[in-house]
């Protein structure tokens, strides 16, 4: 369907979306999701123009059982050529060196199957070989760090330094999350932006390539998002190193996205069908839906390179597979408009 927004990508209006559905989106589902469904989801997403897909998590299966088959997912990515119109980087979480080593063992078995930061910058090379990146995840509050990682922030940063340096040594790109930056389920709204800046600086100094700031609880508001980004900037952080990760629990995700765009942020996390929730954040709902994010960027004349109709189809499909409602308002609207158009064309025949 023609949506009639200004389009046309230039490097200045490009916004990178990081699809977190297969990891953040699925990790909290109670029902066991078959491996084949997870792989199908990743393969479908890879065809939409998304360039980064968070595919799994090398965490303790006792803690997050739904992610227990992340090794099989990584193996599939390495062994089968997933078709994609653009080079895709597949990202996996690691909470400690054990998680990284588990991923590294699979990479070592398939050394020619993936590209690294050291690979030649040849687009065909990258299209033929997926990139694999790792992600570590800290918290902005002590309570959340204890619940999510079973250690305090200082200990987590020491562990992450090792994980980041080892992963970088293997040529991998590393992203670092900081959760609960705009509100904590245990400590409330009072999250200190200066502390967020300190943690982000520590992670960047350890070698992380990008910091994703998680509004885990969706408690972020426009003024508080702006205040946080001002604090980070005052502390010397560069917007090009920052990604924003909004959950839409209070319906503020796109407002906060607009504020972040004004501050120069150009990387946003989202989840197809609005899947998600954090197992250690009671009451947390899904990430902002990828469909909503793509549509929103299109209305602003920004270019994500992502096919909105294709992600709308995937959102409806995966919601059906999981037996849950499709949480993307845009996804439902796109499919509704398509059904109306089809009915109108049929009536004209
Ligand atoms: C960090 C630990 C492991 C500490 O947990 P612990 O219990 O303190 O760890 P431990 O070192 O004492 O080990 C306990 C057991 O786990 C095993 N183990 C230990 N590490 C691993 C590993 N990597 N892979 C596989 N197994 C592992 C270890 O071998 C041992 O096994 P046992 O001897 O009992 O059989 C645990 O707290 C953990 O896995 N936490 C992860 C929690 C998580 O995944 N949360 C969700 C991701 S964060 C998120 O969703 C937020 C985000 C990123 O989306 C952004 C936002 O919205 O905020």
Explain this structure to me?
This protein is of the alpha/beta class and 349 residues long. Helices cover 44% and strands 13% of the residues. It has helices at 21-25, 35-46, 70-79, 97-109, 123-128, 142-149, 153-169, 193-205, 222-234, 253-262, 290-299, 308-322, 329-348, and strands at residues 16-19, 52-57, 89-93, 131-139, 174-179, 210-215, 242-246, 267-270. β2 (52-57), α3 (70-79) and β3 form a beta-alpha-beta unit. The radius of gyration is 19 Å and the shape is globular. Bound molecules: 3-hydroxy-3-methylglutaryl-coenzyme A. Residues 24, 27, 57-60, 62-64, 93, 95-96, 98-99, 102, 137, 148-150, 177, 179, 214, 216, 245, 278-280 line the site of 3-hydroxy-3-methylglutaryl-coenzyme A.
Topology:
Elements: E1 16-19, H1 21-25, H2 35-46, E2 52-57, H3 70-79, E3 89-93, H4 97-109, H5 123-128, E4 131-139, H6 142-149, H7 153-169, E5 174-179, H8 193-205, E6 210-215, H9 222-234, E7 242-246, H10 253-262, E8 267-270, H11 290-299, H12 308-322, H13 329-348
Parallel strand pairs: 1-2, 1-8, 2-3, 3-4, 4-5, 5-6, 6-7, 7-8
Bound molecules: 3-hydroxy-3-methylglutaryl-coenzyme A (HMG).
3-hydroxy-3-methylglutaryl-coenzyme A (HMG) binds at residues 24, 27, 57-60, 62-64, 93, 95-96, 98-99, 102, 137, 148-150, 177, 179, 214, 216, 245, 278-280.
What's the short version?
The chain has 13 helices and eight strands. With 349 residues, it is of the alpha/beta class.
């Amino acid at each position: 369907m023609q949506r009639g927004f200004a389009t046309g990508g230039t490097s200045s209006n490009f916004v990178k979306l990081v699809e977190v559905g297969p990891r953040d989106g699925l990790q909290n589902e109670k029902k066991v999701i078959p491996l084949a469904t997870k792989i199908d989801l990743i393969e479908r997403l890879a065809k939409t123009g998304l360039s980064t897909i968070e595919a799994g998590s090398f965490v303790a299966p006792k803690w997050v059982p739904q992610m227990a088959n992340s090794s099989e997912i990584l193996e599939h990515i390495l062994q089968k050529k997933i078709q994609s119109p653009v080079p895709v980087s597949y990202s996996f979480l690691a909470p400690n060196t054990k998680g990284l080593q588990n991923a590294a063992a699979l990479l070592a078995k398939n050394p020619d199957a993936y590209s690294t930061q050291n690979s030649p910058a040849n687009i065909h090379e990258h299209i033929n070989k997926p990139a694999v990146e790792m992600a570590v995840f800290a918290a902005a509050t002590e309570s959340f760090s204890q619940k999510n990682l079973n250690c305090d922030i200082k200990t987590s940063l020491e562990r992450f330094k090792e994980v980041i340096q080892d992963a970088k040594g293997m040529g991998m790109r590393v992203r670092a999350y900081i959760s609960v930056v705009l509100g904590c389920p245990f400590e409330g709204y009072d999250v200190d932006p200066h502390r967020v800046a300190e943690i982000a600086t520590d992670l960047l100094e350890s070698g992380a390539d990008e910091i994703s700031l998680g509004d885990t609880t969706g408690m972020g508001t426009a003024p508080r998002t702006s205040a946080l980004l001002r604090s980070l900037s005052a502390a010397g952080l560069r917007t090009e190193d920052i990604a924003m990760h909004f959950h839409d629990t209070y319906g503020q995700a796109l407002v906060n996205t607009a504020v972040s765009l004004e501050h120069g942020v150009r990387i946003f996390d989202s989840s197809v069908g609005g899947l998600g929730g954090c197992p250690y954040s009671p009451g947390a709902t899904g990430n902002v839906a990828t469909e909503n994010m793509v549509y929103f960027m299109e209305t602003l004349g920004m270019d994500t390179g992502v096919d909105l109709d294709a992600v709308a189809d995937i959102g409806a499909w995966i919601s059906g597979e999981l037996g849950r409602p499709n949480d993307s308002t845009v996804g439902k609207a796109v499919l509704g408009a398509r059904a109306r158009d089809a009915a109108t064309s049929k009536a004209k025949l």
